[in-house]
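ugh finaly. both done.
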Amino acid sequence: MLKRVVIAIIFLKAGLFISPNVFAQGLAGDTVKLNIKQAEDLFLKNNLQLIIQRYNIDNANAQVITARLFNNPDFNFSNGIHTNDASQGPAYKDQSFGISQLFTTAGKRNKNIQLAKISVEQAKYQFFDLLRTLKFTLHNDFYTIYFQQQSAMVYNQEINSLAKALTVFKEQYKKGNVAEKEVLRIQSQLYTLQAEYNNLQTGIDTVESEFKLLTKSPLNSTIQPVVDYKSGGEKIVAGVAYQTLLDSAYANRYDLKLAKTTIDYNNVNLQLQKATAVPDVSLSLNYDKLGGYGTNFLGAGIGFSLPFFNRNQGGIKQARIAIDQSKAQFQNQQDHVASDVAVNYKNALRLENLYNSFDPAFKSDFTHLIQEVLKNYEKRNISLLEFLDFYDSYKTNTLQLNALQLNRVTSMEQLNYVTGTPFFNQ
C-alpha cells in the first residue's frame, strides 16, 4: 500500500507544479509575442476597416472640389439643309451659333461648398469614432487573451498531473493495490477538467480570431500578449473625478461631435433650400449668318423661371424638420454619453475597491498552501479526495482572481471608451 502511494506521489509532484513554460512551449513555432503598444501599431497600420473608412474622407474631399466648380457653358450650332427660298443662296450656307451660361443666384454655390466641407468633418468624425470603437475592442481582446491564457495554464498543470496520476493508479489497480473508486474519481476529475479546458480554449481561439482580424496577423499564428500588469492596491479610477470624466466625454466623443455637425449641416441646408426658391439666371449670345433680319445677325438673351407656383415649399419644410430632429438626436446622444460615463464609473470603482480588498500576497500564499497540502498527502495525513478538493479550490480561486483582474482592466478600458480619452493605460 505504501509503495503505491509513494509512486503516485512522485507522479503527482512531478506534474502538479510544472513550469508555466510548458504552456508556452506548446504554442511555440508560430507564436506572436507583443505588448499593447505593438498591437496598436499593427492595428493602425493594417486594419482594413480603418483603411476603408479613410477612403470616405477622400470621397468627401472630392465632393468639396466638385462643389467649387462653376457650371459649364452650353454651346449649340445649326447648319441649313434645305429651303424653298433660294434667293439668298443654298440652304447649306446658312449657319447659326449660340452660347449660354447658367449663373446660380442667392449664394447657392457657396452654400453647397459649406455643406461639402461639413461632410468632410462628418467623415473624419466617423473615422475617429470607428477608431475609438475598434481600439476598445483591440484592448479588450488583448487583455482577455492574456488572462484567459493565465487560467489555461492552471488547467494545463492540473490536467498533466492528474493524467500522470491516472496512469499510475490504473497500473496499481491491475495489481490490486488500489480500489476502483479511486481510479474512477481521478478519471472523472480529469474528464471534467479536460472539458472545462476545451471550453476555455475555444473562447481564447474565438477572441484570438477577432484580434488577428483587427491587426491582420497570420491566421495560423498564436497570440501571446506580454503584459506588465499593475497588481498593487493603487486607486487608479478613484484618482479621477467623475466630473472630469464627463467633461472629457462631452469634449472628445466623436459620435457627439458628429451629432453636433448634423445640426450645422441641416442649418446650412435650410439656407440652401430657401435659396433654391430664387430662380437661377441664364445669359446667352446667338449668331445667325443668314438670319431673317439680314446677314450676320447677332443677338443676346436672358432666361429664368418665374416662381409663381413652385417656391420649394416642401424642401424648406423638410429642412426645418431635419433641424428639429437633429437637435433632439444631439440631446439624446448627450444623455447617452452622461449615462455611459456614470454607469461605467460606478462599475470601475466597485471593481477597483473589490480588487484592492484582496491581499496582494494571497496568490503566492495559496500556492504555498497547496505545496504544504501535497506534503501532508505524502505523509498520508489527508486522503486523495481531500487532496483533490484542495487543489480544485486552488484552481477555482485562481480562475476567479484572473477573472477579477480582467474585469478590472476592461472596466478601465470601458471608461477610456465612453470618455473618448485614454485616462487609464495599463
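ok and the 2nd:
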Amino acid sequence: MLDTSLIGATGEQKQQKMTENKVASISDYNLETYLEPTINGGGEFLPLMPLQAADHITPAAQLEPPFLVWQKYAITKDCKDVAAAIRFFDMIYSDKYADLLYWGIEGQTYKRDDNGAKVYINNGSDEELAKSGQVTGRPLFGDTIFPRVQFANLEFELSGVSKDKADHELNILKYKPYFVNMNVNYLAIPDDQQLETKTKILTNLRTYSEELATKLALGQKSLDNWDEYISELKKLGLDQLIEIDQQLLDRYNSIE
C-alpha cells in the first residue's frame, strides 16, 4: 500500500506523517535512530530484508557506496606548496585520521575491550564533554575545518544501535542481489562537452521518468506498456547517456 498523497511531498509533510505514527514502512538507512524519537508516543522502525513482491523475481537490496565526501576541496593554481597539499589529503584518507575523527584518543574518549574492539568511554554529559574537550574529532573539526569522509568501519557503525539493527546490518552485507544507488561515484569527471550533453539529456529524462513513476503508482499507466516507455526514454537520449557514462567509467578504471 502506498500513500499516494505523499508522491512529490516535501520532507516536512513526510515527517508529519511519522510524527503522527501513520507510517508503516519507510526507505532509509538500516541503522537509523534519528527518526524514532520524533514519533509521538514512542515507536521503533524495525529493519526488514528485501521483500519478494512477484514470483520468480528475487528482490534486490539498495546499497550506498562507501566512497562519500561531503565537502569539496581542491588544489588551486595559487597553491605555493603542492606537495604539502597532497600530504594533507594523504593524511585525511588514513586510518589514523579516521580513528581520531570517529573515536578520538585512546584512553580518553575510547578504550578496547577484552576482544580488542573499541568502546566509547562515557565521560559525562555533552556539556561536560565540551568543557573537558573529551570528545571525538568529528564535532571539533569534521564538517568544519577538515573534511568528513565516509571511512567508519562496522566497529563504529554498530556501536550505538540495538541488537536487531546490528544483526540486520550484518545480514544485509551478505545479501545478493544488490544495486548501488549512486553510480556516479564510480565515474570520472566529465569534460565540458560531456557535461553539457549529460545535463541536457538528464533534464528531459528526469522530467519524463518522474511523471511516469507517478502515473504508474497512481494506476494511471500500466506496466504492460513497459517497452513503450523504454522506447520513449531512448528517444530522449537514454542510450547516449549510457554511452557517455561508460566512457567515464572506463576512464575511472584506467586511473592507477
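summary for the 2nd one i guess: Residues 82-179 form one domain.
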